[in-house]
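tool=predict chain=A
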Amino acid sequence: MTFELPKLPYSYDSLATLGMCKETLEFHHGLHHKAYVDNGNKLLEGSGHDEKSLEDIIKDTYDANALVQSGLFNNASQHWNHIQFWEMIGPSGNKIPAKLNTALGDQFGSIEKFKDEFVAAGVGQFGSGWCWLVQNRDGSLQITKTENGVNPLCFGQTALLGCDVWEHSYYIDFRNKRPVYLQNFLEKLVNWENVTDRMV
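tool=predict ok
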């Protein structure tokens, strides 16, 4: 398959009042995500993975024992991560639906405890990476964090919510205040309807 940069489901300036300015989206989507697409396509040529789906490329190239992942994995995984990220946020859908509200309360004790644990995971991810709300095969929910471009697909989990904690995701809006970015992400940016729809 050929990687393609998806069009955002909202305009570059539609999240400005919610804590993600037009400049951030122009850099993050138009430059950073595009770079993963362009570099991934170059590495895909002649790799033997050309005909596979993006998900299969990620799972087939992830090496759990590697200190450093391959270039193809890194770019393919970051491409997938960002496709999900753009869908998981937005200017609407910011009320948690009853189904998810109940599931989060049952798993974490309360919505506030879930949010506290999610922020702690994102803050605790040293360097670049992601924090996630995932659903395991047994249906349980879990908060995880991954380095660089590694994502829940690598562990057979379903990604319900992912927050990009690479600096390019928040530095223009929040400078080095990652905790504030994460709190704002949960309170204002997440499309909880999209998160709920991902539950299996």
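The radius of gyration is 16 Å. Residues 98-197 form a domain with the minor pseudopilin epsh fold fold (CATH 3.55.40.20).
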